[in-house]
Design goal:
The structure is a homodimer. By secondary structure, chain A is an alpha/beta fold. Chain A folds into 2 domains: 189 residues, FAD/NAD(P)-binding domain; 144 residues, FAD/NAD(P)-binding domain (3-Layer(bba) Sandwich). Chain A contains 11 helices and 25 strands. In chain A, strand 6 and strand 7 form a beta hairpin. Chains A and B meet through helix 1, strand 4, strand 5, helix 5 and helix 11 of A and helix 1, strand 4, strand 5, helix 5 and helix 11 of B.
């Protein structure tokens, strides 16, 4: 690694940030004026706007509409550099991260490595029920959804095709609700009048939730509104339905079997191997238990932020695994490190401010809970759209995504109905 | 296959069209008012606008900007249906095509299966020097180009990294010229100021052509203009340079060795296995020799159009493998079959009308030869852009592509700089 030789020589403390998601990127930006060398490491070349991944997975947006090269985003920050490589582990004794490209030394380390899917001990389900965390996941899900209709058309009505146009989404949180609603839009609207041997509108779309209701983090009234709307779009919402098994032909629930060629997983997350391997205590999903300043109790120079951090707000409520939480942690840690490096007092303990919850529920509808504000239906959708366009990076992305949504809304079409990678 | 049972019963003659490129799609559309059942079969779900594939490969456009679901394009045509499956062969004795989804019977058959890359007997070169025919090819090439810079940055200046930022494009036709010019744009403009350990502008980009000059189908003056402009952008144009070997570390020419991590193939095409296996004579690149009406001499019910057809214009010149030629053949065969099915006289022999040749040569420049009209530089580029936007399908694609080009021109950026699929 050149970095070690060439850059350590500069004698400025090096802050290594692993992961350029919402948390890592925010941490890097908060260090823009710090007397530090900031090294951002990510296995991908792009930052992904995860809240809209489900729209790539359901053929509404192209990957490039919601992802940007990390080094382009940090181009204007003179003290930051970006390396694309996979981080394999942390050697806390040697103050080094080991990567596929060799070891990289750090003075301060921020682990912002995000979350992976958790199949609750049933890793064998993964190939049959992919989750949605990366652009690759989204393109894989897009391929599965669109291919299911093509295979059914090819087989035709004469053959029994059990479950080829049955779609099961496991997990009734925002991602599951958004996926199920968008698949219903595809089946009912976008594919209308394009098939000869099947009727896509007759597809079954099931949203399966083990708990007593969908959208558990939302107020009752909003969750009930979402469930009603999903039902109206033809999504069968099954609550209290526990998954016992998943295979290539469908899903087995405690109450019975659903034949389905396409099963998607939106039920559980856990911390990735990197976070789970850190020298600290972990909670049951592998997240590192951090101190009030988000550092590891025995390693004040190592911070964990975002989905990998098990931190409880001073108020007592756990912090949700959403973009605003990761960003707040990133900003906090960046500021803390900047103060530490310049000898100033540390900031007070991290305090999460929950802004609210949003989720779309199919064509032109969303549920929004923002402080005292509660919206449903079309007003909710407009608000949801404005918020998401606002948080996209760059005028170009905002304009293109807004345009794509307007076009989809007017024409009932989807802009990226491609099966690629086969 | 349901098609055979359910649809043969309708008793209308069935025209099967294999491949939904420019030729196949045009043939299907020409049969819109024929008393026939039209079945379009393609292994992909999308029609690809191949002339702009190099822009996907060089991160300027997203796949969805230049590809559309075939069944969406034929949605309005009541007598047409689309099946997504791979065609494995033609059983001319049984009047059936065999597919991965089972056999499909035909009364009239149009093979419009396009071309594959030809490595002139050196198929071992293919993994090291991919060609550009499909969206998957384009995304693979995009990944290779962008990853080369990332790997070089990771290794840093201290390590010798011979050829990591050397790009060799083999073949000086329009595709090779466009790829080389666009890679130069990436290296000189789009990546500027984003790397710390390498200078992308110092990359070597070589365009290697075995013949005496690039763009052999263009007039001398235009080819010379293109070569001059490429040189000005820093592309080393090597003519009379014969490739002897390609491996993971570079290219061996008759005159010497070039270390290069990225080699792209734009040198030769041949017909695919399906066309090469048809019951007819073939030329040396596997194209089927067809009669003056584009049918096989012994099988008047089987037609071959587009890149797979070896046909000589009545004038004597061979027909180039470009979109307008495929479209003209598709329209001709569609019309011929429609006449045949309604008992009318056949049209006169197929006659190719060559409209012209166009190729971009990097940022804001193109060479255009259209009848007496010859354009170079910026006027050529404007004309090239207008023509290509005009031929894109749908207002949405035209608008988005035009906007992307305008944005790229103004900002020097590329809209889809993503490494995916790793």
């Amino acid at each position: 690694m050149a970095q070690q030789g060439t850059v350590s020589g500069a004698r400025r403390p090096r802050v290594v940030i692993v992961g350029a998601g919402f948390g890592g990127l925010e941490a890097a930006r908060s260090l823009a004026h710090a007397a530090a060398e900031v090294v951002v490491i990510d296995a991908k070349n792009h930052h992904t706007f995860q809240p809209l991944l489900y729209q790539v997975a359901t053929a509404a947006l192209s990957p490039a509409a919601i992802a940007w090269p990390i080094r382009h985003l940090l181009k204007g920050q003179a003290n930051a550099q970006v390396l694309m490589t996979r981080v394999l582990g942390v050697d806390a004794a040697a103050n080094e991260v080991t990567t596929e490209g060799g070891p990289i030394a750090y003075d301060q380390l921020v682990i912002a490595a995000g979350a992976a899917h958790s199949y609750f001990g049933h890793d064998a389900w993964e190939p049959f029920a992919p989750g949605l965390k990366t652009l690759e996941d989204a393109l894989d899900i897009r391929r599965r959804i669109l291919s299911a209709f093509e295979r059914a058309e090819l087989a035709g009505e004469s053959e029994t095709a059990p479950g080829w146009t049955t779609f099961v989404v496991v997990g009734g949180g925002p991602t599951g609700v958004e996926l199920a609603g968008a698949i219903a839009e595809i089946a009912r609207d976008a594919l209308k009048s394009e098939f000869h041997h099947i009727d896509p509108a007759a597809s079954r779309i099931l949203l399966v939730e083990a708990g007593p209701r969908i959208l558990p983090t939302f107020p009752d009234r909003l969750a009930a509104d979402a469930a009603r709307r999903l039902a109206r779009y033809g999504v069968e919402v099954m609550t209290g339905a526990k998954v016992v098994d998943i295979d290539a032909a469908g899903v087995t629930l405690e109450g019975g079997r659903i034949a389905a060629a396409t099963v998607l997983w939106a039920a559980g997350v856990r911390a990735g191997a990197l976070t789970a391997g850190l020298p600290s205590e972990h909670d049951r999903v592998g997240r590192a238990r951090v101190a009030a300043d988000l550092s590891l109790p025995d390693h004040p120079e190592i911070f964990v932020i975002g989905d990998g951090a098990a931190v409880t707000s001073p108020g007592g409520a756990p912090i949700p695994g959403i973009a605003p939480a990761a960003k707040q942690m990133g900003a906090y840690v960046g500021q803390l490190i900047a103060r530490r490096l310049s000898g100033r007092l540390p900031p007070p303990p991290f305090r999460y401010r929950h802004a609210g919850d949003l989720a779309t529920v199919g064509r032109g509808a969303a549920v929004v809970k923002l402080g005292a504000l509660e919206l449903t239906g079309f007003p909710g959708w407009l608000f949801w759209g404005l918020i998401h366009v606002y948080f996209l990076i760059g005028l170009r992305a905002r304009f293109l995504v807004a345009l794509d949504w307007l076009w989809s809304y007017v024409t009932y079409q989807r802009g990226a109905r491609l099966i690629t990678g086969t």
